[in-house]
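seq as requested:
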Amino acid sequence: MRSTETSGDAGLTILHDISFQVRQGESVAIVGASGSGKSTLLGLLAGLDTPSAGTVRLDGVNLADLDEDGRAALRGRLLGFVFQSFQLLPALSAIENVMLPLELNAQGRDPALGSARQQAETMLTRVGLAHRLNHYPKHLSGGEQQRVALARAFVVRPRILLADEPTGNLDGATGTQIIDLMFEMNAEQHATLILVTHDNGLANRCGRILRLASGRLLD
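struct tokens:
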């Protein structure tokens, strides 16, 4: 797989001939210096970007065979996301942020799982925010916002969780609590975890480490 972006009249190759597989239930850390291509690789795996050469297969599906709507539907069915910057919608309360992917996903309409609100409340309780359901992001600390983001990611019971520097905006103690919670919830749901990080200690908690340098896979 190769990813090239155009800058003026020249092409800039960000990733060079990357090739690897991730097995179901595996935990994989992608590490490397800033600018090594980690976040670009994660975007390609999620189908948010398309490679200039090569293929990306998600659950056996070649993402190049899908249009944008098809890729969005596949993401909704398979993926959960946790970002460094939380990516919460400021106009929505904590419970509304967690309900949103359920309302966009058929799972949120499954009577066996309860209403979207019931599922969101259960998940926010699981991450220790039962007392903050109706608070807006601006009234939550960074750690609380990331807990909401975790609840939003896991409420859809993703088969694959993609996390991009999930503790990058948190202090050390809060970051450790968030990571412990993420691994606990991931184990409970038996999901595959692909984690981008510059933290070697965090990477070592994963079952496998992929190292990027200047857009090339070293391992």
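Residues 3 and 51 are 5 Å apart (CA to CA).
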